[in-house]
Amino acid sequence: MDTGHMDAGHMGMGDIERIDLGEVPYEEAVERMTRWVGQRRAGEIPDRLALLTHPPVITYSARTPPAELPTDSPIPLIPVDRGGQATYHGPGQLIGHLVLNLRERGPGDIVRQVENALIDACTTLGFETLRRDTPPGAQSLVGVWTPAGEKLASIGMLPHSRLRSSGRGPHRGGVTSHGFALNITSDLAEFTRFTACGLPGVTMTSLAELAAFQGRLAPSEAEVRDAVAKAVGAA
User: What sort of enzyme, by top EC class, is this (predicted)?
Assistant: First the structure.
């Protein structure tokens, strides 16, 4: 288990344009990010962080075993062409989409940087969290966790990054688009209706639940957005 931060601090970023959106359907958001990736590759826009929410949806990849999906959920199931397993998005969850030119930013593990930025944001909000290393051959533990082993945030590459890949690696033209989902006041019961992130037995949590354990109110969505944006370098 590794709780250390990147030596660059706050993802080594800065100069990221912050865009605040409201509720955006999942597929519409992916289409928008696909367009932004093309514009970023062409030098028409700067690096961007979009903060938004999604209506209830469960996304899953071709790698997701059917047994890990819900059988009677009223929530739409959307197959997506990305890695990873099934995950839930819905009200009370902050979604972040990053569009970055990695060639301009230099080498670095973007996923590790996002993990550490979210940990920084949680620290600012008064919550202790950490990242976990994935043992060889095990299901990915990428994300943000509590010391008690509950998962608070998920991180992954957006589908269009894989669909539009060519040459070496998934970042054609040096531009990548990653997303993260941080539970604020999410309905955690929805995560129990399927195997979230391919991790049976793992409990999902939220900032509201953690705050209740501390005997205080949960931070507002606006406070979480500001903390995340500052940690990412898009304040």
Answer: transferase
